[in-house]
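Give me structure tokens for this 325-residue protein.
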Amino acid sequence: MFPGVSNRKRFSDLSEQEVLALAIASEEDDGRIYLNYAESLREDYPESARVFEEMAEEEDEHRRRLIEEHRRRFGEVIPLIRREHVAGFYNRRPVWLVENLGLERMREEAAQMEKDAGQFYLKAAQRASDAGTRKLLGDLAVEEADHQKTAVQLEKDILIDETRLQEDTTARRQFILTWVQPGLAGLMDGSVSTLAPIFATAFATHDTWTTFLVGLAASVGAGISMGFTEAASDDGELSGRGSPFKRGISAGVMTTVGGLGHALPYLIPHFDTATMVAIVIVFVELWAIAWIQKQFMETPFWRAALQVVLGGALVFAAGVIIGGA
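Here you go.
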């Protein structure tokens, strides 16, 4: 195989038997994906799990019809051909990735899966020479196009308003516990705890590059420390706060971002300009933290602002005083 030459077939080069085999494999894969979604949702969202089980049953029915058509035309042996063997064929995102993104993301992914499958059957039907195969593929194209409506109807039948509201509330609560809460703690820690070393260095040295390096080290160090601390503090099994890995990532990244916000201005070589920009960014960071607390943690805005701004101001003042001593 020469470098840069693909070993995958083009869709236009597939025989009708290979098209049927590809459709069978795709329906099998999609059915398993929906069952995996259902299994991952069963404990927290049992009604949504039923929706995906219903969709998996429909994919299995498509698979049976395709196998019968293959048996009629080509016999019992189905060629082994899958999506990854065909150049330009649609791919599915890994199940673990979509699961990690939550319930709403699974619903969106399912809608895209049905759209992709419908387009595939439409193109396949246009190439079919056998009347029976052409009819089957055309019917499946119509059915896949209607599946998104079917999924919506299944949700209406199964996910009554009260259940949907309960599941959405559970999903929001889990998102807050797993991502927002540790991320907010990290942002507060990074924004506030790095104020003193950064501004102490700035006013002690009046050297922007040295200040930036200290800020970078303080931010990255605090991020690593905060990430490991969050991940190790609770495995999430009893508290329901979710994956320690996700919480550690959220806390670590946001801690680093909080510190870098007022360290990056010291890349500006002029000390007074860099310091003024850094102070403005500190002000914006502290008010953003107060807004996030109000938006997700239901903390009254002015109380959150008083706590965060007052604490930040005290740490900032400590840094300036120490740096100027």
